[in-house]
Amino acid sequence: MELPQLQVKQFSEQSYWDARHKGEALGYEWYRDYASLRPVLTRHLPRQEPILQLGVGTSAIQTDMVLRDSYTAVHSVDYSPVAIERLEAARVESASAQLQGALSYEVADMRALGRHEDGCFGGILDKGALDALLCGDNGEADAAAALREAWRLLAPGAAYLMITSASPRARLPVITGAGVPWASVLVYEVGQRGALAGPFEVRLGAASGGGGGGGGDVDGMLGGAVGRLPEMGYSHMCYACVKP
Ligand SMILES: C[S@@+](CC[C@H](N)C(=O)[O-])C[C@H]1O[C@@H](n2cnc3c(N)ncnc32)[C@H](O)[C@@H]1O
Question: Measuring from atom 2 of ligand 1, which residue has the nearest CA?
Fold first, then answer.
């Protein structure tokens, strides 16, 4: 019997996401919910500074950030107007003045966020958005464009926090291959029932070119604990990429 092939390419298509977001429950979370990511998020995304969330989908992470940890400004973007309209309607209808004031939404492509000024965000959250981009025919180039845009928008010393199922062997070449000289990249592994390992620091100096923008020598960067990840079953990775 011939089984239907998994069409991962569709994850890079806006029409797929529009159709999916029409029927998805608000609060549907890819990979992990706020409770399991909270220690890493609150460590790398400062509560008093504007935070940008890429590819929000129908996630409720931004709501949790405001209600549970008093984040003051979380701006979430997605290129699916369907997702953004639904989230904005929920914000307007919310009985919480705190949510109404702290949340904002925008239909925008994470590869080109030109409306926003350089260095205007104190942190960036990406849960599954770069993963979706990477599924397309031009995945590597699209991911590099998105990473350069994230870099442009980050304030000095701020972090781009990427949540993904991709192992360091698969993801570090993408992170370091975009021509962006990260000061440091830290890796966490988030497992079941609150299990958390890390942070483990990537040896960026081992990448060809001697810095975070070089790409190239993956084996060099996988030294120590980073090279052993993932060590847990059904886990996800968090990459905290810090701008100098
Ligand atoms: C795997 S889902 C993750 C959704 C949400 N972050 C979560 O964790 O539940 C990927 C999201 O990225 C969005 N997306 C994909 N490519 C995008 C792009 N180029 N610009 C903005 N959003 C994009 C999709 O519309 C989708 O909502």
Answer: 128
